[in-house]
Write a structure and sequence with these properties.
Blueprint lengths: L16 E4 L2 E4 L48 E7 L6 E7 L4 H22 L28 H6 L10 E13 L2 E12 L2 E13 L5 E2 L7 H18 L16 H7 L3 E3 L5 E5 L6 H4 L2 H5 L10 E5 L1 H5 L4 H12 L22 E8 L6 H10 L4 E5 L1 H6 L1 H9 L3 E4 L12 H19 L15 H5 L10 E2 L8 H10 L6 E5 L3 H16 L2 E3 L2 H4 L15
Parallel strand pairs: 4-5, 12-13, 12-16, 12-17, 13-14, 15-16
Antiparallel strand pairs: 1-2, 3-4, 5-6, 6-7, 7-8, 9-10, 10-11
Helix pairs in contact: 9-15, 11-12, 14-15
The structure holds nickel (II) ion.
């Protein structure tokens, strides 16, 4: 006959205890010598009342099964600033098409950034100096919200080093099933290596936005009141009490107190409820038990406990929402996401994110559909400056560009140097192209890019369209080797850059995935020119600057 072993819960830095009948053994946290608890079996006499059991997880087991969670379709956002006076590394998951969860997540992030700025005295500006984070490392990282904080801060993928106030935000997808995403968001602040706060919140987000809740909503008031006597009874039974029933009246405990103890909950796939009781939990009745007292730390406080309530017993304690979460997680259904807007269809706040605009000129051509596929697969937006005569040859791909939210600009009918044409010829080049795009896709462009960047006041005077130039010229049309093209398109752009590429060239189309991945790996968000400019185009008869 063995007593439940109350095992280490899935949060970093907590202490594990093992309760053995008559003897309390304190095991060191993080120590691999904690023996796997023997399988729990009900004790004679008390079994019928004892519904709170142990988790009995071997200490070597992973704290969360998150490595196996398939969160395909979740959009993990990345911010990284290597400014050592205000280092910042943040990543969090968003559900495209679910503004409720996005707004909640961003509010937490921006609040933390505002507080960091107040401490450092440095106004926040987006940076793009992440240490070349590879695509497979840009997601929420399993274990990152529970690993020891010192390890987290030492990981330069997840935390930016520096001497000033450091902000580290990490995320972990704990479960994803049906219409429910469970994400842990950890916000850690430090001054150099000295941790000043470290807080994790687990969000239960209904994928289409119906609710985002935390686990403190899972139990009803009656459920809270029912749980304490069961826990006390279990612990007393472990101590060998002849009559383990809780003697103290539940009315002696306020709901607020009960919530403090029983607000960190999680469901296992079998529907059982794990209750993570924080350090410091005790009652006068428990304090009378020698074994319980012996399990306390030197200062008299008790380490956290992890308890598991079997599914059938848990259901009676749960709120409607708690039951809903329990059922969806137990269903094991694949994650169901709402229809997702493309990046180009979303509002992007370039005051928060490090934005860059890729522009593809001279198409549409043979490689344009491939470029669109590559953009779509990486949630990237772009701007295409089209030649009128090519639009007439490829109307479908122009329709697709617009359907996916990309921006379209006018690049003249057949690419002359406009400064060498008559006023009438300039107007003809731009008007015919605008009409071709209108005929193909039903929308007229609101900007133009002069071929060769050749523009003067006389050209600008012929149109109401502002001219969009570029700040980084990759010279891809000269067919540089791949490494050179990558260096120009990935390493050169700064925040707010407009990068010139041509989707009519095989090399550019072939390298587009690597270019996008390289920019994303630096922490950039790829946007259209109009998104980059905050939705405000330059006035007619003006140009954007050329770098
Ligand atoms: Ni061109």
């Amino acid at each position: 006959m063995t007593a439940p072993s109350v095992s280490r819960l899935g949060r970093a830095g907590h202490w594990a205890i093992g309760l053995v009948v008559g003897v309390a053994v304190v095991a060191l946290a993080g120590c691999t010598s904690i023996a796997a608890a023997p399988e729990w079996s009900p004790r004679a006499g008390a079994a019928a009342e004892l519904v709170v059991t142990d988790t009995s997880a071997p200490a070597s087991a992973p704290e969360q099964p998150s490595a196996t969670v398939d969160a395909t379709g979740i959009d993990v956002r990345l911010l990284y600033s290597a400014n050592t006076a205000a280092p910042l590394a943040a990543r969090w998951g968003e559900i495209p098409g679910n503004p409720t969860f996005t707004e909640l997540s961003r509010a937490r992030v921006t609040t933390a950034i505002t507080e960091q700025s107040a401490l450092s005295g440095i106004p926040y500006t987006p940076a793009a100096d992440a240490p070349d984070i590879a695509p497979e490392n840009r997601g929420c990282v399993p274990g990152s919200t529970t690993r020891p904080v010192a390890e987290l801060l030492a990981d330069t993928t997840l935390s930016a080093p520096g001497t000033g106030p450091r902000l580290t935000i990490s995320c972990e997808i704990l479960a994803a099933a049906g219409t429910l995403l469970v994400e842990a968001l950890r916000i850690t602040t430090a001054s150099g290596d000295q941790v000043t706060s470290d807080q994790s919140t687990v969000y239960y987000a209904e994928t289409s936005g119906a609710f985002v809740i935390t686990s403190d909503t899972f139990l009803t008031d009656d459920g809270l009141r029912a749980l304490l006597p069961r826990l006390v009874q279990s612990l007393k039974a472990d101590d060998g009490a002849f009559d383990p029933a809780m003697q103290q009246s539940i009315d002696d405990f306020t709901l607020e107190q009960l919530r403090t103890w029983f607000s960190h909950l999680a469901f296992a796939p079998d529907g059982s409820l794990t209750v993570n009781v924080p350090a410091g939990f005790t009652t006068p009745e428990l304090d009378a038990l020698a074994a319980w007292r012996a399990g306390a730390a030197a200062d008299g406080s008790h380490p956290p406990l992890t308890l598991t309530v079997p599914a059938a017993d848990a259901t009676a304690l749960l709120s409607d929402q708690g039951r809903q979460v329990q059922a969806v997680l137990a269903s094991g259904a694949p994650l169901a996401l709402p229809p997702a807007p493309t990046r180009a269809q979303e509002q992007t706040d370039c005051a928060l994110f490090a934005c860059v605009a890729l522009t593809f000129d001279d198409g549409p051509g043979d490689y344009t559909a491939q470029v669109l596929d590559d953009l779509d697969a990486r949630r990237a937006a772009a701007t295409f400056f089209l030649q009128g005569y090519r639009v007439a040859q490829n109307p479908d791909v122009v329709v697709r560009m617009l359907a996916e939210g990309h921006e379209i600009g006018n690049h003249s009918w057949n690419h002359p140097d406009l400064t060498k044409l008559t006023d009438e010829q300039i107007r003809d080049q731009l008007d015919r192209t605008g009409q071709a795009i209108q005929d193909a896709a039903g929308v007229r462009p609101t900007t133009f890019r002069p071929p060769y960047g050749a523009v003067d006041p006389r050209v600008l005077a012929q149109t109401e369209l502002p001219a969009i130039l570029w700040t980084v010229d990759t010279n891809d049309w000269r067919l540089p080797d791949d490494a050179t093209l990558l260096d120009r398109a990935v390493a050169q752009p700064g925040v707010g850059a407009i990068v010139l590429l041509h989707d009519v060239h095989e090399n550019t189309a072939r390298m587009t995935p690597a270019i996008i991945d390289g920019l994303l790996g630096r922490g950039f968000t790829l946007v259209t020119v109009q998104q980059l400019l905050g939705g405000t185009l330059p006035a007619p008869h003006t140009t954007t600057s050329r770098g």
